[in-house]
Structures are given as structure tokens and as C-alpha cells.
């Protein structure tokens, strides 16, 4: 009788441990997904600002159609991207295109003085800052989640239930380069 009670207690303790560890992993995975969706919200907001910015620039820089087309193309790539990896890549391309657009604007003093352009540039700067913070929070969540997956004893539970590591949101090569616009 005493052995049966001890076995039941051990089984219950192991069950509680597995359930607790599993729930913790699920919570961290959901936090990672939530943090990525926060980035996605800001990236969508940025993508929504771009058509207005491009239209404003068009009036001043009519012969700069290649730069404007690359911004529009990068925006469309982001909007059609599916999955976190492709969204991260498309976001980097869009950031690079926007940086080229702002570098181009430096050559047009009338454009820089345009209040509509200034307001759009300010809004885009605010969104870029929010994207930066959202990426930071996302990466913090990924770190906690990946640590939980790899650390003993939760790695056993993670392996049993198929939890997979998440990728960090990293700057791609385009985002690391200095913008260089030549005329």
C-alpha cells in the first residue's frame, strides 16, 4: 500500500512537472509569435505610409523613377511575403529602399522643405523607431524561448512535444550597408 502511494506521488509530481514545463514552453512560443506580430503591425504601418511619400517625391524628382520604382517594388514584396523569414527579408529590402529614397531627397532642397514630405518623413521615422523596439522585444522573446528549449530539463519536454528553435530578427546585408546615391 505504501509503495502504491509513493508511486502515485511520483507519477503526479512528474505529471505536474511535464505540464508546467509544457505550459511554460507554450507561453514563450506564443510570446514570440505575439512579438513578431507587433513587428508586422509596424511594418504594415510603414508600408501604408510609402505610397504617400512616393507621390510627394514624384512631383520633385520626376527623373528619379528607378529609385521610386524600387521603393514601390520593395513595399509590394513585403505586402505579399508569407512566413516570418520572407517577411524579415522583405523588410530589410524595404528599409534599404527607403534609405535610398531619403538620400535622394537630400538632393532636392524644395522637397526637403515641403511640409507634406517633412510630416511623412517624421511619421516614417517614428514607425522605424517602433520597428526597432519591436525587433528588440521579439529577439528578447526568442532568446528566452530558445534558452528554455535548450536547457535541461525543459529540453526533454521540448523534444517530446516538437518545440523548435526560432530565428532572431537580424539585419540583412542591405541594412548594414551605408546608403550611397550617385547622380
Could you provide a short overview of the structure?
The protein is mainly α and 183 residues long. The protein is built from 7 helices and no strands.
Q: Care to count the β-strands?
A: 0
Largest sheet: none
Oligomer: single chain
Radius of gyration based on Cα positions = 24 Å
Mean pLDDT: 85
User: Approximately how much helix is present in the residues?
Assistant: over 70%
Structure annotation, total helices: 7
The fraction of residues assigned to DSSP E strands is: under 5%
Category from helices, strands and their pairing: mainly alpha
SSE order, as H and E? HHHHHHH
Morphology call: rod-shaped
> First CA to last CA: what distance?
89 Å
What ranges have pLDDT less than 50 throughout 5 or more consecutive residues?
176-183
Task: Describe the fold and architecture.
- The protein is rod-shaped and about 90 Å long.
- It has helices at 2-60, 65-80, 84-105, 109-113, 115-150, 154-160, 173-176.
- Helix 2 (65-80) packs antiparallel against helix 3.
- The chain has 183 residues and is an all-alpha fold.
- The N and C termini lie far apart (89 Å).
- The longest helix has 59 residues, at 2-60.
Amino acid at each position: 500500500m505504501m509503495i502504491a502511494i509513493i508511486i502515485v506521488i511520483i507519477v503526479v509530481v512528474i505529471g505536474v512537472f511535464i505540464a508546467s514545463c509544457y505550459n511554460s514552453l507554450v507561453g514563450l512560443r506564443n510570446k514570440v509569435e505575439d512579438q513578431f506580430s507587433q513587428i508586422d503591425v509596424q511594418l504594415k504601418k510603414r508600408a501604408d505610409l510609402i505610397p504617400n511619400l512616393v507621390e510627394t517625391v514624384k512631383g520633385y524628382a520626376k527623373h528619379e523613377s528607378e529609385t521610386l520604382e524600387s521603393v514601390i517594388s520593395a513595399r509590394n514584396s513585403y505586402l505579399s511575403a508569407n512566413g516570418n523569414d520572407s517577411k524579415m527579408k522583405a523588410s530589410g529590402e524595404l528599409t534599404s529602399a527607403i534609405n535610398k529614397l531619403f538620400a535622394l531627397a537630400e538632393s532636392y532642397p524644395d522637397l526637403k522643405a515641403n511640409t507634406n514630405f517633412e510630416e511623412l518623413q517624421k511619421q516614417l521615422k517614428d514607425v522605424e523607431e517602433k520597428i526597432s523596439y519591436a525587433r528588440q522585444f521579439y529577439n528578447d522573446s526568442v532568446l528566452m524561448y530558445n534558452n528554455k528549449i535548450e536547457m535541461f530539463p525543459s529540453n526533454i519536454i521540448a523534444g517530446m512535444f516538437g518545440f523548435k528553435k526560432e530565428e532572431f530578427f537580424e539585419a540583412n546585408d542591405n541594412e548594414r550597408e551605408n546608403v550611397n546615391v550617385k547622380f
